[in-house]
Amino acid sequence: MKTVLKTVALAATLSVGLIAANAHAEIDWKQAQGTEIRFLMNKHPFSTYIEPKIAEFEKLTGIKVVMETFPEDQYRNKLAIELNAGGKVDGFMIMPGQDARYYSKAGWLQPLEGYIADAKLTDASWDEKDFFASFAKASSINGHRVGVVINAETSLLAYRKDLFTQFKRKVPTTMKELEATAKFFTGKEVDGKQMVGITLRGKKAAATSQWVDFLYSFGGSWTNAQGKSNFGSPESIAAFKFYGDLLRNYGPKGGTMLHWAESTSAFMEGKAAMIYDANVFKALYENPKESKVAGKVGYAVIPAGPKGLQLPHVSNWSLSINKNSEAQRQKAAWLFIQWATNKENGLGALLAGVPSGRTSSWASAEYKAGDKQPDWTAASMKSFDIGQGQWNPPVLNVPEIRDITGQVIVDAIEGKNVAESAKKAAELMDKKMEL
User: Fold this and answer.
1) 213: closest CA among 418, 429, 391?
2) What is the pTM assigned to this prediction?
3) Three-state DSSP class for residue 225
4) Residue 189, CB half-sphere, CA atoms under 13 Å: how many?
5) Nearest CA among 253, 272, 133 for reference residue 198
6) Cα-flanking dihedrals φ and ψ of residue 83, to 5°?
7) Which end of the chain is more exposed for a tag (fewer CB within 10 A), N or C?
8) What's the CA gap between 357 and 396, in Å, rounded?
9) Strand pairing of 64-70 and 36-42?
10) Which domains, from first to last, does the chain contain?
11) What is the pLDDT of residue 87?
């Protein structure tokens, strides 16, 4: 009897082992062998990183990848023309916050959840849960995952940590403290320069991608539950007013002409104590050949709004599959996307300077060993974790609505009646919106 029990136990153990092994076994990477796929890509650091590695994928899978890369404006035009004309495009890069709504309505985006859930198509090691949840959400539309993130961006408060130490100032954690700190530094003479407290984008539509973080942190939003403009709400008006007052009172002169280049230049010249803008500009701030503040900059998450909300935006480029591609080429395109976004390539891209959408990349020993700005890393990761992906208005005609929004920002910077301007914008926005 004991022999029988031992045999049964051994069999059960072997069975469990086989199940576990099968659960973690690699997929058949040769299942689409002989297929040729065409990807259109934006000229982007991720494209630069992944293109030389394509031969590895082709050897692994037997799939031929034709990748065509174009500068962004040309890329957007070419992609839209080819997708509309039914050209042979199997996969492409997309900025979901900009284009997902339009592309989805046009019928160009293949939902990916079926591929992700298929154990024969997606290897367990790909590990969907390793991606920041905010970016998975940002790459979804109407409840469907339509892209896999290849780069992760947000915005941070950057500040002169040397001046904060010198003047014994704490890093602001609330909007009230942010305004007080900006006021404190405005007019201070440092190295023979009259300082401004903070610099921000103020040039109409260009300012919206940074102002939106203030909008959400103040409790406002682009639209309300009924899909109408929410700009007339007290919270949205307060966000407009705060942002405008901050730049008018404590920022560089000519605030309505500040795009990202002008704003970052003011900070890099040592003229501003703080700046709020994209985290990718760390590369500019820390470049000793171009920046007078290199090595003197600290980084923090956006300060909390009046109700304690901290909601920076998250934006990204993702890889997507053309819904109108043939089934076999879609399968091959998914294998390519899965490979291009695996953990190895996520880490490799990060080490090459492309902010990864994977948590494991940032937590790796390789990245930590060379991380010279750990506060930037910590603030970026926190923003990735808590951020929201609706950084553009949730409409088809994004540029028009950004222009309408930008005019309210300009009015706020110029000290005009913000409530009146916001309500007029809301009315115009409702007329223009195609939800």
Assistant:
1) 391
2) 0.84
3) coil
4) 1
5) 272
6) -65, -40
7) N
8) 26
9) parallel
10) 36-152+315-381 (3.40.190.10), 169-313+389-432 (3.40.190.10)
11) 85
Residue-level length of the chain = 435
Four-CA torsion 373, 374, 377, 378, nearest 10 degrees: -140
The tokens for 60 are: 């692994």
Amino acid at the residue 70 = F
Average pLDDT over residues 63-86: 95
CA-to-CA dists, residue 25 to 30, 123, 286, angstroms: 14, 8, 44
Element (DSSP H or E) covering residue 299: strand 297-300
Query: pLDDT for 260-272, tens place per residue?
Result: 999 999 999 999 9
Tokens of 67: 């990748």
Segment 22-61, tens digit of pLDDT? 333 589 999 999 999 999 999 999 999 999 999 999 999 9
Task: Tell which residue, 200, 206, 152, 226, has the closest CA to residue 389.
Answer: 152
Strand ranges for 318-407 from DSSP E: 318-321
Buried b / exposed e across 155-171, counting CB within 10 Å, b at 16+? bbbbbbbebbeeeebeb
**129 Cβ neighbours under 8 A, 6+ residues apart:** none
